[in-house]
Specification:
The complex is a heterodimer of chains A (262) and B (260). Chain A has 262 residues and is mainly α. Chain A has helices spanning 2-27, 38-49, 62-93, 95-110, 117-124, 129-152, 157-165, 170-206, 214-223, 227-255. With 260 residues, chain B is α/β, with parallel strands linked by helices. Chain B has two domains: 7-83 and 161-259, P-loop containing nucleotide triphosphate hydrolases (Rossmann fold); 96-158, no CATH class. Chain B is built from eight helices and ten strands. Chain B has helices at residues 50-57, 75-80, 99-109, 114-127, 143-155, 173-190, 201-207, 240-259, and strands spanning 7-16, 24-34, 39-43, 65-70, 73-74, 84-87, 161-165, 193-197, 210-214, 221-226. In chain B, helix 4 packs across helix 5. The longest helix of chain B is centred in the C-terminal third of the chain and has 20 residues, at 240-259. Classes of the chains: A mainly alpha (262), B alpha/beta (260). The interface between A and B is medium-sized, with 18 and 26 residues.
Chain lengths: 262, 260
């Protein structure tokens, strides 16, 4: 009963949203290239999921494109998260080093990293998967690094003093106090980074690479006026983003049992 | 003569940022002996260095000059030997550890086996009357309950000395009085020596064997007041002798401020 009360409102909002979309597009006779109705996007998704036999350019199976893009997003996310968390630990352990590095990291973070995509293409080769992965890693790295480093410095002074009163070493204090204190910050950065990774992957793909990825599938179908397919590819991309966000929520639940609502 | 005192402070001075910009003399020429089993309160105007003195005894900071001994050893050695337990105003419980695990933390760091830790935390939880909360997280407990857990943790390895920095400062008056009585009964049961920082005159008068009144910064001992109210019971707070002592402490505090 209680669960129903939580689930029902967003479901109702969703249903109303799609019904209005469908109804308005039909009623106002909005043309397909401006905004296709949900029903034709859905049909395109089903049709193009496995690809069309003897398909021409721009008819890569959405299943294949989705898998390739998800691979880039997930591998980049994992590497970026590990690198960000690792560097945050290093600068916490070696504070001098960290103090000199952090403003630099914040400055880099303020630059739109997506703009580097063509450069990475030149570095790794335009067909090399690493070109797109590098963009994802760079985009994911900074929020994780900055949030985690901040979290590691948030332990209450009394708690540190308490540990020192037990004769605990710096490493023990890091492991027993600073890392658990940083976990909520780290998990927040995961929730930011997870959807970012999909955005970064697709934008990087716009700049070049093999055709069998969601980015090119969207641009090419749009240029061939197959907007329903382009929209279907966007649906797949948002599905991947939602999936990764759900994983971040699962990580939150598993890593922080003390934060669960009883 | 070193064996007698639980805490022996000799001509201790503490200046922060010595020789740098923002140099602050926090403590000046303090001599103090605390006898085993004694309850000594440090009271004084805010910023007088009472917390600094407590941290010096705990070896969380080092004196600029002078010596501090805890049970006849240098304070640094006493810290490494875990001769004292500590509790702060903010309970300092670890949110991510259940209540029992919070109490067991010092024992864990000392390498106790899991079985012995469980046994001891159960015993301590009985002592502070929180047996049924072993598997709760700190956030699920009230402020007063959290503070009891912090005391149980400070006492978990049965140190002979307890250093407390305004441990009840954040509690409401009723809870505070209740906690004061509890601390006294626990202290009596375990025969612990206590050095207690407070800014409450009533608290100092009710709990202490001696009250050390510090002057404003740089902190010096202005006066030491003996308090002999016998066994403390809640009614002690209504005893005319209690009021006399509280008045004496208040007047001493006023005279330091006037001398400023």
């Amino acid at each position: 009963m209680n669960r129903l009360r939580h689930v029902a409102p967003p479901v109702i909002v969703g249903v109303v949203f799609f019904a209005l979309w469908e109804g308005l597009v039909k009623a106002l006779e909005i043309r397909e290239f401006l905004l296709p109705p949900p029903s034709s996007i859905w049909t395109a998704l089903i049709e193009q999921w496995g690809g069309v036999e003897g398909g021409t350019l721009g008819t890569v199976a959405l299943r294949v494109a989705g898998r390739n893009t998800a691979g880039i997003a997930i591998s980049g996310l994992v590497i970026g998260v590990l690198a960000g968390a690792w560097l945050a630990l290093i600068i916490t352990r070696f504070r001098r080093f960290g103090e000199s590095l952090t403003p630099f990291a914040i400055a880099i973070n303020a630059t739109p990293i997506i703009a580097l995509a063509p450069i990475f293409n030149a570095w790794f080769g335009i067909t090399d998967v690493r070109s797109n992965q590098a963009v994802v890693i760079a985009v994911v790295f900074f929020p994780v690094f900055i949030n985690t480093a901040k979290g590691l410095s948030q332990a209450h002074p009394n708690q540190i003093e308490l540990m020192r009163s037990y004769g605990a070493s710096e490493f023990t204090i890091l492991r027993r106090v600073q890392i658990p204190t940083a976990l909520p910050f780290f998990v927040t950065s995961l929730k930011i980074a997870a959807p970012f990774s999909v955005i970064a992957a697709i934008v990087a793909e716009y700049f070049g690479g093999p055709q069998s990825r969601l980015g090119p599938v969207i641009t090419q179908n749009a240029s061939f006026a197959r907007y329903d397919v382009a929209w279907a590819a966007i649906v797949v991309a948002s599905g991947i983003g939602l999936g990764l966000f759900a994983l971040a929520l699962a990580a939150e639940y598993l890593l922080m049992p003390w934060r669960r609502r009883s | 003569m070193t064996g007698d005192a639980a805490v022996r402070v000799r001509s201790v001075e503490k200046t922060f940022n010595l020789g740098k910009v923002g140099e602050v003399a926090a403590i000046r020429s303090v001599d103090l002996d605390v006898a085993p089993g004694e309850f000594v309160s440090l009271i004084g105007p805010s910023g007088c260095g009472k917390s600094t003195l407590l941290r010096l005894i705990a070896d969380l900071i080092e004196p600029s000059s002078g010596t501090i001994e805890v049970f006849g050893k240098p304070a640094a050695q006493a810290r490494l030997d875990q001769d004292y337990g500590m509790a702060f105003q903010r309970s300092g419980l670890f949110d991510w550890r259940k209540i029992a695990a919070n109490i067991e933390l010092p024992l864990e760091l000392m390498g106790w086996t899991k079985e012995k830790r469980r046994q001891r935390s159960a015993e301590m939880l009985r002592l502070v009357k929180l047996d049924e909360f072993a598997d709760h997280y700190p956030q699920q407990l009230s402020g007063g309950m959290q503070q009891r857990v912090a005391i149980a943790r400070a006492l978990s390895f049965k140190p002979q000395l307890l250093l407390m920095d305004e441990p009840f400062g954040a509690l409401d008056e009723m809870t505070r009085e209740h906690m004061q009585s509890e601390l006294i009964s626990i202290k009596t049961e375990l025969d612990t020596t206590v050095v207690f920082v407070t800014h409450s005159i009533a608290e100092a008068a009710f709990m202490s064997d001696r009250v050390v009144v510090l002057s404003p910064r740089p902190g010096e001992i202005h006066e030491i007041i003996d308090v002999d109210l016998g066994t403390r019971v809640p009614d002690t707070r209504e005893d005319p002798e209690f009021f006399k002592k509280a008045t004496e402490i208040r007047e001493s505090l006023r005279s330091v401020k006037a001398a400023e």
